[in-house]
Amino acid sequence: MDQKPVQVKIRYNSPEAFVGQYLKYIINSTFQLTSSQAPDIGTPIELTIIIPGFDDPFVIGGWVTSVVSLEGEKDAPPKRGVTIRFDAIQAERIERLTKALIRNDTYRRLLEPAKTADGKPTRGAGDLSGGDSIGAAAPQTDPLSGGLTLPPQDRRFEWLRKVIRDRDSVPRAARKQDAAPPPVVSTVDRVRREFAPQERERMQPVAVFILNLVKAMLRSGYYAPEHPGSKKAKEGIYTDFKVAAGDRSDITLTSQETQGRFDVLVSGILDDQVSLRGLVGIEQAEIYMPKLKDYFSRKNLVSFSMKRDLPLAHFEDFIDIMSDPIRDRGTEGEVGSLLTSALVDRGITEVSTIFVDDMIIFELKLPWRVEMAIQRLAKDLKVLPMFKDKTAEEIQDIKIRIIQDIMRPLREPHMLKDIVVNAHVIARHVAAVDTEELEQTIVKTFPMEILLPTSQYVFDELTRLKEELVQKPGHTGLANRLESVKRILKWISSRVLAENLEASNTFFEQLYFQNILKYDELPDPIKDHVNTLMLVKDYQESHDFYIEKFVGTNKQDDILLFLRLFRRILPFLLEQRQYNLISFFNRAVLSKFHDHPEYRNSEIVPLRTPIQFIWKDSINILGGLFEEETKEARDAVERIVKLLGPAGVSILVHVIIESQNKYARRSAVETLIGMGDIGRAAIIKILTSTANNWYVYRNALLAFSRLGRPGEAQLVNRFLSHDNPRVREEALATTCVLEGPAAEPKLIKALSDYDLGVRRRAVTCIGGIPLTSQRAVSALVAVLSIDEETFLKQKQALIELKVEAVNALSLIGNRSVGDGRMVEEVLLDQVMPEKKWGKKILERITPVLKKKNQDYILQTAALKALWKVGTDRVLPGLAEFAAKADTVMVNRAKETIRQIQMRGRGRPENTPA
Asked: Can you tell me the distance from the alpha carbon of 204 to that of 664, in angstroms, rounded to the nearest whole number?
């Protein structure tokens, strides 16, 4: 089951306080909250805002997108700053709130934009005119319009027919799957220093290759390039390279120095970066790391990558160039250029190098892997024009391959997002690169399975930039980046359409609501969805108009149009818990078809069963709400269910049989009982089935006790011997209701059930009828004489059973129990622990009472029963008991004596003379 949203309620003390939060957060689809018990990232939230001057609260749904720890006051619990993001579907709620605020004089005055000296309105916090202009604080006032406007009400039917057309329903966007927040990821760069056995085995040839490569590049123990043995040595290292790369696209080595400790990170083999120190071990690290540090420093080298398809000739040239000490003699900042030029002169495109003078400075802090990927991309694209022997087509192919090779290892959506939204940084440093072309090419490399998850992070970036623009209106850099992110989302949308990617409805909705795509640019299913949202909004605001028109029309085609309207907007009203509006049109439909039964014989099929037609796509949603809602909200759902007749019964039966929520099952039983005969038929069907869980039968028996008829008691008989004692209990209670005194044999038989709960229910039934036969009275007395030793582990349950037997005897009255004894004497026995009147009893009364054990409970029940049935025959025993009991029991015994005496010389009305 999906996670239920956390309920958060905010109450503002003044309109000014609310408007400040509204302008800063709500109209930008976010909210910030500080709390000592804030929910975690990804938690769904239902935010209820109490606005001064408004009767109804504003409710909006979203999820937590970030959590920051905040330093609390001294001795106070730590607090957390939480950002809540509202999904696209909430835009129409925010728009509705905006209209309501503007209609209110107080809020309209607070929201009016400030004016300059020439009287023109400024762009700023109070500007609700809409659009995404630089510095605007809010999206369009009507985010659902997209160029569409609702016609006047006198022409609304024409528009309604155009929108709904001849379809009974429109497939609804999959809300729970594709509207989920992006997965929570760590932006910390992972570096592996320890390895599982399989990982160690995979990395072993990598370590061998790197150490041999280092020796060659340092010319330590290897021949000079011109020596005859050099070629053979390099061929051996090349073989090591092929084995190390395996099926991976490349191997990358990157220098890193943190807190004075030098290391080389190996990327491309495992999903994480690998520490060369951890890979080769302490001894070899002590030998090679100082040499490697000196090498990277002399060459001004930061990183280099070798692609798997690197040919032997280029590999040999690469080693010769990178190991040549002559090129180290350039002035500072020239070494990297010299080495790069040498690689280009040899036509080596399969090796990518980054030198210190190639490094780009970033405004934002990015994960190290992302930053190095961007650095490598910028360097490789910058070098491309230097290959003079390549044609334009070859250069373009190489460019695409470079991007693909660099992007391929980055499989995490947040990393892909970071690279594509920073494409403008690369273009700024590489003259031959066009930003838009680069963005589009990068998007084309996104793996299809993470294209949409990546888009969610791009949307987050869009939201963040909009928030910054609110704080920094007119900031050109932020504005350009915002336009860049919009462009990227358009590239993604083009690819989604081209690939016909499933589960993309919410993605296109977001594009539309963020004013990135116009209505005419949307796929047809999303156009239908937007139209549906407009229908929902208009019905919410003008439901009286629609219901009046529906009730007033007698044309069957128009009636069908309204039924289709109700069917189409129903899932959204359910999602928003608009139960009153749903009940409104349900009652209107029922009333109209009650007054005009002739419609049920119409040639138009939906008119024959209008309620079933309207609810066909939403019945399961309503069933889910019945289970999920709180008790208070479930009452409203129950009222709707009752209106649905047989369809409502099917919901309730499903809940009773399938739900794991016992409170929902209990509510379903009560609702079914309230539906009369159709509920009764459903209960009988459950009782006659043989494939249900025990609790289903128990709930059905509970309902049948109120819906069943005396002649139907035989339906209950088989449950009197059911394996589950809870079912046997409910079967006894139902039998008692349906048969009355005739159930006596079954009830008395149940008094010998192995389960004490079943016996107790039987006793309750005997007293509730009540059964006054000698047999019934004797059976109750037998219950009081059950030996406690038989139920040592269930003593509490046994005491409760005996208390119930005492209560039942008090309801039956002071009748004979045989052997010349009366009920009152049996009850007095329960007061006296040894069940006789003697000195031993009096000696043991006080210590027993002081313990206040389970016998104490039974004694109290017996005293209360004697109030009702006791006569002057038990007064001496009660007086003797009171003389030795503790204070509490003394008072109770005396009160019992007083009650008996008040009934007139110790003879109650139901005592035979």
From this structure: 59
- The DSSP string of 399-437 is HHHHHHHHHTT---HHHHHHHHHTHHHHHHH-TT--HHH
Instruction: Name beta bridge partners: 264.
Output: 255
pLDDT-derived band at 66, boundaries 50, 70, 90 = low
Preceding omega of 447 cis (within 30 degrees of 0): no
Q: Which helix (H) or strand (E) holds 655?
A: helix 646-658
DSSP 329: G
Give me the DSSP letters along 471-533: HSTT-HHHHHHHHHHHHHHHHHHHHHHHHT-SS-HHHHHHHHHTTSS-GGGS-HHHHHHHHHH
Quote the pLDDT of residue 418: 86
**Rg value, the chain, Cα:** 41
Residue 87 burial by CB count (10 A; 0-12/13-18/19+): exposed, middle or buried?
Answer: buried
Cα separation values, 213 from 236, 335, 505, Å: 10, 20, 51
Is-contact 293 362, C-beta < 8 A?
no
Residue type present at position 533: L
Distance CA 835, CA 566 (A): 73
Give me the mean pLDDT over the 5-10 stretch: 83
CA distances from 887 to 227, 642, 669, 841, 852 (A): 114, 56, 47, 18, 12
Rounded CA separation 852/847 (Å): 9
Torsion of CA 662, 665, 669, 675, to 10 degrees: 150
Task: Collect all residues with Cβ–Cβ distance below 8 Å to 792 and sequence separation of at least 6.
Answer: none
Is the separation of the CB atoms in 67 and 38 below 8 Å? yes
E runs forming strands in 268-361:
273-275, 301-307, 351-355
User: Distance (Å, rounded) from C-alpha 687 to C-alpha 313?
Assistant: 84
Report how far apart the first and last C-alpha atoms of the chain are (Å, whole number).
67
Could you give the 3-state DSSP secondary structure of residue 34? Answer: strand
Which tokens sit at 798? 């046994």
Give yes or no for a contact between 877 and 832, defined as CB atoms under 8 angstroms apart: yes
Look-up of token digits 């008989």:
717
pLDDT at 79: 57
Angle at 180 between CA 175 and CA 181, to 5 degrees: 150
Residue 124 has φ and ψ, to the nearest 5°, of 180, -155
- Say how far apart CA 370 and CA 367 lie, in whole Å: 5
Residues 6+ apart with CB under 8 A from 885: 845, 846, 849, 893
| Backbone phi, psi, residue 818, to 5° | 95, 165
The pLDDT-based confidence of 728 (bands split at 50, 70, 90) is very high
DSSP of 218-234, one letter per residue?
A: HTSSS--TTSHHHHHHH
d(CA 115, CA 39): 41
Q: Is the pLDDT confidence value at 806 over 90? A: yes
Q: pLDDT, tens digit, for every residue of 419-444?
A: 888 888 888 888 777 888 888 888 88
Proportion of the chain in helix, strand, coil states, percent, rounded to 5: 65, 10, 30
- Helices and strands of the chain, counted as H and E runs: 40, 13
In 72-215, at which residue ranges do the beta strands (DSSP E only) sit? 79-86, 191-192
Beta strand 58-70 pairing with 250-258: unpaired
Q: Which two tokens stand for residue 580?
A: 């009153």
pLDDT of residue 160: 83
Name the nearest CA neighbour of 216 among 233, 198, 229: 233
Are the beta carbons of 878 and 897 closer than 8 angstroms?
yes
Upper half-sphere CA count for residue 66 (Cβ side, 13 Å): 13
Res. 390 pLDDT band, cuts 50 70 90: confident
Q: At CA 723, angle to CA 721 and CA 727, rounded to 5?
A: 75
Q: How many residues does the chain have?
A: 913
Percentage of the residues of the chain whose pLDDT score is greater than 70: 83
CA angle 201, 204, 209 (to 5 degrees): 155
